[in-house]
Amino acid sequence: GYGLSYSTFSQTLDSVVWDTATKTATVKVTVKNESGPAGKDVVEVYGQAPYTDGGLEKSSVQLIGFAKTDMLEEGKSETVTIDIDMSEMASYDYENAKTYLLENGDYYFAIGNGAHEALNNILAAKGKTPENTNNVMDAVGNEAKAYKVTKSNFNKDEYKKSVTGKDITNQFDATDLNYYTKGTENEVTYLSRSDWSGTWPKSMDNLTASDKLVADINSYYSTSNNPAAYTKGDSDTSGFVSGADFKYALVSMMGADYNDTKWEDVLNQLTVDDLLELTRQGRPGAMTVALPSTTAIDGPAGFGSGKYITDYTQLNSSEKTTTSESCIAWPAEVVVADMWNVELAEEMGKAVGEEGLWGGGVGWYGPAANIHRTPYSGRNHEYYSEDGFLSGETAEAVIHGAVGKGLIIYIKHCVLNDMELHREGLCTFANEQAIREIYLKAFQAPCTPGENDACANCVMGAFNLFGATWSGHHKGLWLEILRGEWGYTGNITTDFGQNPSGYMEPQLAYEAGTTMFCTSGSAFAEYLEPLIENDAKLYGNMREAAHRVLYNCANSAAMNGLAPTDKVVTVRTWYQNALLALTIVTAVVFAGSALMALAQAYLPKKKDEKEAE
Description:
Blueprint: E1 8-19, E2 24-35, E3 42-48, E4 62-68, E5 77-85, E6 91-93, E7 99-101, E8 105-111, H1 115-125, E9 146-151, H2 178-181, H3 196-199, H4 211-218, H5 262-269, H6 272-280, E10 296-298, E11 307-309, E12 323-325, H7 333-338, H8 342-359, E13 363-365, H9 388-403, E14 408-414, E15 427-428, H10 432-439, H11 441-447, E16 458-461, E17 465-466, E18 469-470, H12 475-485, E19 491-493, H13 506-512, H14 523-532, H15 536-554, H16 574-612
Parallel strand pairs: 10-13, 13-14, 14-16, 15-17, 16-19
Antiparallel strand pairs: 1-2, 2-5, 3-4, 3-8, 6-7, 8-9, 11-12, 17-18
């Protein structure tokens, strides 16, 4: 958060108003260009919640809001207003209350050029100096840039409800390593502000997996088509309608509510093959509902392949526009986050959406919102920052712009996928507080629908396991948090689909809320085809998965140019027929050549044998 500028800016904290009724705080800051060329400055608002030694663990300071000024000429000023949802200051108590809490005590709001400066300002407001804090402060703070609010009437259940009204509670108990090691020599002690020296992480070189952990991991692998972890449903699937007469084209469902009763008729039109294809990768299309095939393209820095316009000078010309396998290369995500400018980030999203409209890309495998957990992650350039709040706000802006142009956004890789090497099947561990306050925070804003707000319409899961449960099988993540707490209505896809009889087990995945297997091969359809028509639970789960896929296709650029009366049919272009003819001719020539070669080798031998007789 530390910014540099060619100009010298001053910031004055004018006021902080905490409205308990709306659970928001309004912060007003006046920014002035004191000297130098015209430029913009960033207002960063940080918060500090009351901390009790040995109680609920909290950061000493955290980013809770920011905004960028307009262009300010020398001597000019601007008053910036930042509205803060006070849930950003709530801490997650995973051990006792098992939900979010704001505790009674002193709350501080501070502005500063980075977290260090903001913390120095808070400590200055408490009467601290570098000298009387043993140089914990790295500079003298400015108490005028901090504001204290004392609260003493919080209800412990005040932040227990999610935006959907659902109770928020633990979903990741088994992702905490202590789920397997509690009471053993391998039990983990988490770092605490109340005892830095006593809780500083110790070497874990001798850490060994418990028998239970090994057994839980091994339960994912089975040689049968019906793993022990999946319980087969009723064999009678006659209650599902398949291949019903055409009644509604998918385009007629554009703008319809997800729970509109007409969806039942649309889903009844799908065949079993449609279910297998739509939930395998979501892009093949379905003639039964007049859905054309679509294209999804990687990655977070923009479309990385596919035919895209490269000669923009000819856009308004009658001449043929040239194309190639390339696109605009956008700045790495870490640079986008460094702008601290959600308006500009949204403009980038709109531009990527325009590329999709020109080039035919309906799906975008981006952006990515994982956390810069260490400097050594192989994909930090594809992730926004080490801060969940900044990452989430930036991703939300980019997505808002892109979805507004009709793109289907596959924000990735949810969640705890913060390294690249050996990530397939890797067991990752973290406690629920860390998962919710850091890692999931980056996905929460982009995936929570707001009023008139376009959020991510597809989330990509991750290769890794949460403890011993693969992300694609984690009901707590997909069903309880994304759909239950956040009200998310989008698709949930896996990362690149691998062997369906391995740890990416599709029956378990569809049951847990996964709706698609990213770019998976035909093996997934072949694996499921003999199972679906004899398993009512699997059939219902895949039907619901197809519902999610179709709902988002209906509200995307895939519908551009279609009318409710249009039909989608499979056609063969002239060059496909020419290639087929060429293939047949080549096969005939090859077969003839092979026969002649055999004859040439065989007949002279027979002749020599006859002469020898």
